[in-house]
Amino acid sequence: MTSHLVTGIGELVTHDPRFDGPLRDAALVAQDGVVVWVGPASAQPAADARTDLGGAAVVPGFVDPHTHLVFAGDRAAEFEARMAGTPYTGGGIATTVAATRAASDDDLRRRLAALVAEARAQGTTTIEVKSGYGLDVGTEERLLRLAGEVTTETTFLGAHVVPPGTDRADYVALVTGPMLAACAPLARWADVFCEPASRVAFDGDEAREILVAARSAGLGLRVHGNQLGPGPGVQLAVELGAASVDHCTYLADADVDALAGSGTVATLLPGVEFSTRSPYPDARRLLDAGVEVALATDCNPGTCFSTSMPLMIALAVRELRMTVAEALRAATLGGAHALRRDDVGHLRLGARADLAVLDAPDHRHLAYRPGVPIARALSL
Fold first, then answer.
1. Binding-site residues from annotation for 4-imidazolone-5-propanoate
2. Under 8 Å CB-to-CB from 207, ≥6 apart: which residues?
3. N or C: the chain end with fewer CB closer than 10 Å?
4. Which residues of the chain have pLDDT under 70?
5. Same domain, 161 and 285
6. Structural domains of the chain, count
């Protein structure tokens, strides 16, 4: 067994209730990739290896619980049109489906690896990856197989949209039958785009049928909900015990109350609103009600082509009315809870030694210096 001391930490955020906030002039020891000691540098123990960060701040590695990283092509033209006033409806997903179906495994693998590396270069150490750009049995299975090469947090999203020209009932039967049977062994989670306001997504009854079938197949549940307008997504997620409901832009008081009394995390994706000129969700309303909130990038080619969790933190502070501390917690511990993980998102004893090292004196610079690459991942 080998131990590794990280010292010279100007500020250390641990999310450990033993400490009253961040530690100054701190050190950390990991043994075989697990945190075994945290405290003041003046009391640091000996270790087999040593890294001195020279006063840099350290926070838990970012946990990104919502991405769509396995795809081909881009939708820059769609983005340009939205900036000129064209509203987002979800219809452009079909463009990515066509490109993805035509791509080889090697092409998809190269893009996926590049995006994961890009995320790590900005401090992300745990990442969820969805399928959803296949919408047929063979391609959905292929996308999950590739996603499993880079993460254990794989999500089956055959219920992304109904393919053009396909009967809705027939497609739901495909998703809950042969597609689920092929994909469940490759996934930890199942997700559905529950959005009655979109003509291509799924209504509440369709989403329920898909989620119940996925749960029966042994998958955990996630929901895209209440993004484009009011809808049943939040209530359905809470009722079925989903780990998270993502977007949460249009919420009734009953939705907020349901989330506050549940174990379902509200995952907010401010990069989507930035990239679609849409209203931002009201994080302050959720937090004040006691709802658990996470942040994620939703990195995808259509509505947010960014892997940057620091950017999401900056947007959360500027546009969602979160404090920097709240946004950082949502991007780390909140994301871990959205994935129902207790080994990441914090730096308590027994956690994975996944760090985000900041080229800055403290964590406030994540929002203070938006767009500047001050964070990088360090896994011991």
1. 75, 133, 160, 227, 303
2. 159, 192, 194, 223, 232, 233, 236
3. N
4. none
5. yes
6. 2
